[in-house]
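It is worth pausing here to work through a concrete case rather than discussing structure prediction in the abstract. The textbook approach is simple: state the sequence, then state the predicted structure, then interpret. We follow exactly that order.
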Amino acid sequence: MDKHARLDSALIAWRSLVSWIRVAISLTAARVAWALRSARWLLARSEIWTWRFALLPIAACASALLATGRALAWQPLAVEALAAICALTGWAMARALASGRRGEGPFLGMAITFFVVAGVLALTLLVGRGAAQLTLGVTAAFTLALDLTQARERDRGKVWLRWLTHRIMTPALLGLGLVVVTTVTQGSAMTPALWLLGAALSFLLFSVVQARETVVSGARSEPHARRSGALPVVGALALACALIIALALIPGAPHAALFALLAAPIAIVAADGMSRSTYVPARAWAARRLGLVFTVASGCIALGALASAGVALATQLIMQLIGG
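Step two, the predicted structure:
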């Protein structure tokens, strides 16, 4: 009898354990499914395509610093990149809310959360640094506020204010501004090569923003107005190419930055489409190609700078071996 009682109690305990495991698995699966749905919702509305406009300038500047023999502090670099991503994600959600495209979900709370995280991360970068980062941070916050105001009143917004926020301040902050912040954060000084790098990236970004704004605003306008909007795009691309060439020719600068000119054929095709075509989908395709131009050019600058750093390191090792 005692043996049967022990078997029955063991069987009851086993069944309780199996039941608890099943409930735990069910709850875990439900939580994982909820987390995946939330992540999918977040990624779908955070406009990931904008992240490259912040990450690639940081990568290009960091590679240029490595090419000059500067050792990088990776923690501030990661904090800066994360702050930029959070700021862009919060901007995308707040802009969707202001323009009435929010759909389902807590857009306002998520946008505020991302802005708070970006602000906290930016403040950690400001500790013990110069006034350049503080000035750029305040300018960035001011630009975001103006841009969100324009998104709320796009039909009544002033043209000059859209030009100031979208086509001037945004490219300046995401190009030259991020290069300055990255350089100061790494404890380095701005050199002529870094100024040229930041200016070239800003002009490339200006061409992207100008092309997108021209397509949106000129969808219902006359063909002449559409073509006139392409002239600043062509001029910005030409200036960016000239600055990249000047960057590669500076003594001590990464000469392999000339690899960025591999994006020139894409830029020529896109600029030709923007200036000649009156068909709105074709102009939208050309505007998207300008985004590819920025990606290819900035990526090639970063890879070219790393290649220059690798060649310099290999040459130094060979000279040491020969001298030894």
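Step three, interpretation. The mean pLDDT is 77. The chain has ten helices and no strands.
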